Amino acid sequence: MAFSVKGKSAIITGAGSGINLAFAQLLVENGCNILIADLALRPEAKVLVDKHSSGSGRAVFQETDVTDWVQLERMFEVAEEEFGEVDIVCPGAGVYEPHWSNFWRPPGTAASKDSPAGGRYALLDINVTHPIRTSQLAIAHFLKYRKNGRPKHLLHISSIAGQTAAFAAPIYTATKHAINGLVRSLGKLESLGIRVTAVAPGVIKTPLWTDHPEKLKMVDQSADAWVTPEEVGEVMLALVQQDQVSEIIGDRSGKGKQFPVQGGKIFEVSKTVREVLQFNDEGPGTRPGNTASDHAAVEKESFNILAQEGWGLSKL
Question: Is this prediction's pTM over 0.85?
């Protein structure tokens, strides 16, 4: 399944910033065409698109609300119009327990935008439904071009939250457990030339953290180590291009233990890389890049919300 991304094409949702932007940057630099599907581009993403509007390794932006299935279908249509065959799909868009779709701020409260009269949570639509629907569309596209014999890769973004529990972020944690189950369940698609894998990052220095003071208060800047989007992007590129990934990414030496890349596998990315086993896994532990030391602060906030009279009662 190992192949070069040069001359290939990719769709990446959520690549307007963060991990997915870092992955997009690496793909373009290695001669891969990319379609960035997102609500908007941050300035650094706009620079990437403007710089690579033509030539080998083009970048195209398609404004996309990933909670809208019609728009997900359209991003595949646009990618096919622009590039023809698509080889790599990364349903990377995701959110981390925002106040507007948060377990401790239920539908009907002032902070929530989820309707108490509906059966939807935006966090679930973005973090679970969108990756499922994008996977279905990707598989359909891959099979359409199966006769060409080119290997395909469906690459998901999980999290160490998919291995743990988090009182302050129960819906987010549930979504990442769901992604792990989805990826493992689709592993046998490798027999059709479609590899399905996921990265499970630790604490990543992206706008999902840096733009949100309510989350930053969990991080002890003097004790906790950030993993950079670029480090995660390197692992993502390795999953696509190589049959092995290295245990070590921090020093870029590549001399660590090598893990085989196969369908259905999940790779934790802290300051090292390791395979997350389906059974009897050791868990993320306290490896550098995996820890946010002060969860007590946000847990206390959650208990304070619960202490309010009438919490969770329907306003209908």
Answer: yes
